Amino acid sequence: MSGPHIRDGEPYSGPHGEGAPASAAIAAAVPDQAPVDGDRPSAQDRFTAGRLAATVERLRGEVRAAHAAAEGRALVELAKGVIVERLGCSPARAARQLAELADQAGLSQLELAADIINQAARDRVAEAAGDFLRVTADEPGTPGSAAGAGASVAVRLRTAESAALSADDTQSVAESLLAHALEPLGAVAVAIWTTGPDASLSLRGHAGFGADEAARWHHVPPGVTTAARQALTGRRTVWYPSLAAAGIPSIGRTRHPDGGRVVVPAGTGGRIHGVLEICWARPLDPQPQAVERQIEALAELCAHTLEALPAQAVSTRPLVPGGDGPLELAELADGLYDPVLVLTPHLDEEGRLADFRIRHANAHFQDPAGRPRSAVDGALLLEAYPATAGGSELFEQIERVYATGEPFRSRRTRLTALVDQVPLSSLADISISRHGDSVFLIWRIEDESARLASLLQHAQRLGRVGAFEEDVLTGEITWNGQLFDLFGREKTEPPVPLRDLAAHVHPDDADTIRHFLHSVLHQRRAGSTAFRLLRRDGVTRHIRVIAEPALGADDRLQAVRGAYQDISAQHWTEVALTATRDRLVATEEEAEERNRLTLQLQHAIMPPAKPPLDAPGLDVAVRYRPAETESLVGGDWYDAVVLPSKKVLLCVGDVAGHGVEAATGMVVLRNALRGLAVTGAGPGQLLSWLNSVAHHLTAHVTATAVCGIYDPESRTLRWARAGHLPPVLVRGSGAADLPLLRGLLLGALAEAEYEEAELRLEPGDTVLMYTDGLVERRDTSVHDSVTQLLATAQLPADCLERRLDLLLSRSKSDTDDDTCLVGVQVT
């Protein structure tokens, strides 16, 4: 069905008028004799078939135009009625007044009629049309259609509303919505679903989908997840930019696999009567809010239409034949053994669901607060149980069941009732279901004694505890099932009396059991003891028995109650724990001694301070701060020595790891570097040789290092680095780190080359070399830590020694690692 055709501001019904005899025209166009099967169609036959198709298409257009004209006339007549009511004039005068106003406004009578109806109605359709017109201009369309250049969104929506309200089935509603309101938005198909009493979905109307596709989707059973189901259960509009990307099945997916979808629940008064599903052929871009309002208005129109149409026949038998709703449900509720409340919706002045009225409480009703059923019968649910609107979410679930028809079940739900402003809580199993326009709320308050008995059984099973009671007067003994399993006896066998218990225990524990029985049976005191139980199947279990006497009115012993507990696992755990503790003590002692020797070795090689060097024009100071924890003794090292060439070797390094391996690796590298430096080679060559030492002559040691050779005569420092932080230069009142030269860490590869740099120092300059223990923090990046170091290094200091102490005292490192610091100052 297309939109209404407009000609000179009036609906146009086509050349043949409304209800043209299409069958007669088609019959006249049919040739007298069709081609014989197997004969090739002649040119005349093809010409005749073409004329027939054109005639059929023309007649279809005329029928659509006739329907559109009728819908347009309905809007014009409705606007005339508004004018008659407002002006108190005759219908003829109202028609002339409408024509005059349309000429003055430069609008067609249909557009003006839609505006008059919008102003008079002030409903969702009017709001949606007004929002859309404020945001976007009217869409261009084909000349002569309601979506044409002279038509407005209000005309489209009111035309769709008129067609939907005048339709006698949902199929016509779907066709009208698509033709008048959705095709201008780019939609290509629409489906109207209704909800059944079993929460199923049925396709009641569709447009733009093939007949075969609609037949396959005529019914969706409850529990099947589809696009419409998502909107129904969520009670909200769902937008799918691409249905294929969402992976949700729905009608028309094979025809438009990448198309967008909008699925809107259609409901009134808190109840969802159906779902409106709109399909686009291409992926759907985000839409403005005005379009969303327009689609919601169409869903509301669809809901009112579904509510007014006859109910769909379903295969399920009515719950109660005949009668009138809540009364029959009340009779049904009285026949149930569980407490039942029959609820009906309570709407506010605007027709929205505000609460539920308690129409009936059955005879088995048990109020959590102890009130009689007459106290809640007839009251509003939120007034009788205000706590249901709080954290229990019970009211929200009732709303959802009423809206969607999908039942809700929950076990051990906490119910809270207010009695004199005091909250009383209880646990209950909840069942909520919708029957017609009413809701069944069934709850079963949990039996506290049964629950405690169940908890006790689970506790005995988990704790491997078996309970008993023995009547000393009659000799009757009661065991629970867990105790038979504990003793390895069949449940058909008699229990073991307390007096015979010594015959079932390890011989070494027999005296312990006799003392225990004497205390309980003769001294009548509660007691407990542990023993080894010898079972008939050869298994020995470690058991703890606890018993107490039960005395009568004459203070005589009548019975003994108690329990046996299997503590075998605990016993063997204690044995294993004792052995482990002994091994742990020995291991700790060995580790302590190992760390002590490692620390002694490191301190012997790396003293915290170093005597002054005999280097003219150069002050050298070093600091070494060992790790605070002996287990973290590492491989940090430094060296500052005057070479035979009178040049000064300056270096710091850090061997990966901790313990003896790191300390011995540090000794090897430090001594090797000293020996190699005698050759007079530069720092880059020295690090290359030291890399070969680390790779070939140690047990897979890796380390970082920075090495410098200072020439006192030229005051130049040549330096290189192997994966280490570069030195820091303090000049005047500023401090900066030196360039990050290329150089791999030592020992990583068999051969490596190291870049050198040369720095000419001036009197007063200070160069600092350090290991990462000075700056490393767990919560701070290395760049930020070095920046903090530079800020401290540029602080004024009386001398080099004072500057090194200041750096150590203000270090914010938190890794508890070794720290080496070497400083040289040109005098």
Automatic annotation (TrEMBL):
Residues 56-117 form the ANTAR domain. Gene3D superfamilies: PAS domain, PPM-type phosphatase domain, Winged helix-like DNA-binding domain superfamily/Winged helix DNA-binding domain. Residues 1-10 have a biased composition (Basic and acidic residues). The keyword Hydrolase applies. Keywords: Hydrolase. Residues 1-21 are annotated as: Disordered. This is SpoIIE family protein phosphatase. It comes from Streptomyces litmocidini.
